[in-house]
């Protein structure tokens, strides 16, 4: 992986020595396992089905800086039998890096970087174990394509964690329009008597339930004004924890300079099912450094612990955001 | 310095400022739509002299509202709920309903969402001067805007918005008129919520608002008697007061729309227009693309409440249950004459008797019929689109309970539509006795599955039956011809000079002359029917030095005056065509253009669009050129005058020579066309003389004569149309306005072929238009010259009708015009009276780079939409003129009938189990001869055997036989509907049969 920030040898050695000191020292005075301030807002793109903007390490004085990522989901109807669609729906993730975030990279290098990010995110999120149950519309006929698009607006280190956080927030925010299958079934017997109910409309509103009807041809939207229901299994969307490893020290949330100084990064993505213990969804080792196998186990359990903390904090924030956008806004409107 | 306030709300208020909704597109995609909403405090309440609202708009609501209501003693406005407009539009539109109306934006949007035609009527209503309607944009005023609560249905949200706006109005009025000390508290004007939704009314009353149902409101008005008739029955079903005793359903319920659409998409159901059978009210058919023959519907249940013109979804039975169409004339009036209009509560009893009669008729059909005649048979399971409109009807006198003219009690009566294709309509009225003998307009409101007849309400009376005004207006209404005078906005599009407009003197810099050829010196003349005022074509021809001939067709340059996207253009597009009735012309364009500025009158300079050919002496096109021009016609001939001039051997002037030259060319052109396989079709055409001097009768009928000069004009118009069609298709392959005539499916001819073979031994080759033309030429009976015409008329009826289309919308191989045997065709030569020609003019003008093409004519959907309207209008206009002729033929018959009986020669064109259908060529009418006594009917050989009156040997009558019929016009004693009645005179006298 290309070093995105070039630092001089002496600078690198300065950062590394400070990390090895007792107690370890970091440029901005944080402890090893401290995160910079994380700012999150959901619902930032009104036309999207779900969206979020995240910033890690915004400088409070300047009101700028930090790693900033915008994530949004868009649902599209796909035809299964004749189009690209997959029965039950599919997820496609795309990461775009703003050239402003990487002014030093050439277009080609930027493309490669985007591709790297896209592959990682897509592989983790489109895994069958995470697939939401309500992306189907009509079995073997129509399904939703969930496009998750991320834009890295600026990079001040720790893009992976930020990316997964943004993706999780956007997916959590995503609402799937409620569809209803409509179909016509020909009568069996051929008497010319007025026949009874020949229609089979699925009254239950979830797309999932339409699976019971095999021959439905088309669907409609029972309520145009409703945003819809949340994605199934939205608590499962994974979070990533990146441990930056320098000799025996590891630390969280590296800034760009620290990333350049640390020879090895371990990125681990965890899902936190509410009923069982966390599951590892992905592990990546990035960088030229080496890691002994015995240490991997400890690092992973460390990462899981950090991940759990991050998950809890994010969950509170997401619910708070939801409340702010709906309930509070209505109240304020009512009290005008 | 104006204070600037920022009205846009911050992102935090997204719930309020943004309105999101999903939309499913026709292609099945789901789109999220976002609307930004700005709330303001200065949306005007519309009350005159309101002290709180700004004065930048002119308010229209009188400050005291209306006080003309018995129950509501205070001044008030009404705020109608959406259901009022959806169900009671006729009431609101009535000039007698004068209460000032506050129209809420919420209501307006809901109406638009639910029904576009009603929304358009609502828009018209807002514009009329007689009504006081104030549109209040409640969704944009900060106090009245509502947002949807969690779990609230859209309907509840809208109702809440309407109530909130009503409450706001009342508080606003009280704020605007604060009580003054030492003076009694003023009685405030009140906003009253008008709704038929009981739940909404109860909620409103709980919130302390005045709310009232439409019926209760109307009952308190001054003109309650007339207004109550306008109330649609539909609105009442929301009232819980009527005990809803479950009645036996006579018809199966319709499937829900979504299911129907899914079924059609899957190919299990078929969608098409429902066509009622005019001979048998228990039978109908639906043409669908999936079958070559129309789907047959037999019996009331399978027709399931469809009314002629509705778009329905049909389910087809398995092939073993297919039937053949009936061969009996079944008249609704005679079969069901005992039906009682008041029977809405008990449809049993004698109904059963009639039901049994109907059942017998239905069952008799289709038995013992040859399999070849069987058609796909099915039943209607769903309604795609109702095409109900207002129908012209007569009140059935027998259905009246009380005919005391003073009686104002409400009665339920039957209204019989003028059109035989429609069922009787049941309506409730208080004016029944005074409406007998009048033509009235009735709207159908609903047709419940438990009701045998549709229910409707009275809209207005048109006048006494057989008065010319009433008949004329009823014709126009019946065929949906827009006949209102042109509005001011349209007349404003005319040249300011009016009558005095002239072509400016020739000057190269003048925009009028730019790019125009000066053809004023050419010997141009026009040939038209006598009395023609809208002359849109003129011709010329002259020999060229190289031996070829230059011929030119000059068409009025209407597109110079009718510019795209102006009110006049839109009106013309909506009218589509000029409608010619016997005694009236309903113009497509204002009279100033049609009969003056565009009309190519003689001896004045006029702008024209010219098509100029160089033709070889054999009438082959060497070269063609299109140009805008200025012409001065030298003479306006009638067909007769031109014919006389041409045939007069003493005339040798240049104009006469040019007519002869044109005539020679036309003969060759026609020969060439006939050789290519063009059809010479015939339709019964008669000419009506109105109060002519030659005839003693006030009105007389005469068959139209065709002269050589008719054909002359026709040939050149065809040539011009074909040349123009080629040019615009070349230039605008995607959007050219063309006209085509699809070849008829061979199955259409099966019956005619069979009849011809069995009755006369002749065969008809229908493989191509040329073959058909050749075999039609051979259908000659030396003893009976009219026989050929008869066969031609019958062949014409088997064909499809020609239609306009957009060249990009259909395959290149279907462009052909079957009747003219031309690979491509358009209409270019009558822009004054046909809108398609105006479009063709614009396209041709762009094709020769005279003017840029308006962007709308580059858009395929736009052209398709306009042509759809034009096609429909064209069809309706034809039917209207035919009906107008029929009416006058009826008058003429009546006039002749006074001086004695009318007997005419007629041909049998169809045989039924209980009658024959005859065609009277001298009058161009068709009629039924019914036999009351049992007759022998041979369906295989198309004959009926009628026993002679004095029990002698039976006489056999078959199709194509010539008979003599006695014709008289009799009024149906019940409905006052004029009816042509025919009885056989020879070979047998059927008066006693």
From TrEMBL, chain A:
Pfam families: RNase_PH. The keyword Iron-sulfur does not apply. GO terms for cellular component: cytoplasmic exosome (RNase complex); nuclear exosome (RNase complex); nucleolus. One of its GO terms (molecular function) is mRNA 3'-UTR AU-rich region binding. Residues 204-215 have a biased composition (Polar residues). GO terms for biological process: exonucleolytic trimming to generate mature 3'-end of 5.8S rRNA from tricistronic rRNA transcript (SSU-rRNA, 5.8S rRNA, LSU-rRNA); nuclear mRNA surveillance; nuclear polyadenylation-dependent rRNA catabolic process; rRNA catabolic process; TRAMP-dependent tRNA surveillance pathway; U1 snRNA 3'-end processing; U4 snRNA 3'-end processing; U5 snRNA 3'-end processing. The keyword Electron transport does not apply. Residues 34-177 form the Exoribonuclease phosphorolytic domain. Residues 187-215 are annotated as: Disordered. InterPro entries: ExoRNase_PH_dom1, ExoRNase_PH_dom2_sf, Exosome_comp_Rrp42_subfam, PNPase/RNase_PH_dom_sf, Ribosomal_Su5_D2-typ_SF. It comes from the Eukaryota. It is found in: Cytoplasm; Nucleus, Nucleolus. Keywords: Cytoplasm, Exosome. PANTHER family: EXOSOME COMPLEX COMPONENT RRP42, EXOSOME COMPLEX EXONUCLEASE RIBOSOMAL RNA PROCESSING PROTEIN. Belongs to the RNase PH family. This is Ribosomal RNA-processing protein 42. The lineage of its organism: Eukaryota, Fungi, Dikarya, Basidiomycota, Agaricomycotina.
TrEMBL record, chain B:
It comes from Steccherinum ochraceum. Gene3D superfamilies: 2.40.50.690, 2.40.50.700, 5'-nuclease, Nucleic acid-binding proteins. It comes from the Eukaryota. It holds the Pfam family Rrp44_S1. The keyword RNA-binding applies. This is Ribosomal RNA-processing protein 44. Residues 76-202 form the PIN domain. It is found in: Cytoplasm; Nucleus. Residues 323-352 are annotated as: Disordered. InterPro entries: Dis3_CSD2, NA-bd_OB-fold, PIN-like_dom_sf, PIN_dom, RNase_II/R, RNase_II/R_CS, RNR_Ribonuclease, Rrp44_CSD1. The gene is DIS3_2. One of its GO terms (molecular function) is endonuclease activity. Keywords: Cytoplasm, Exonuclease, Exosome, Hydrolase, Nuclease, Nucleus, RNA-binding, rRNA processing. The keyword Lyase does not apply. GO terms for cellular component: cytoplasmic exosome (RNase complex); nuclear exosome (RNase complex).
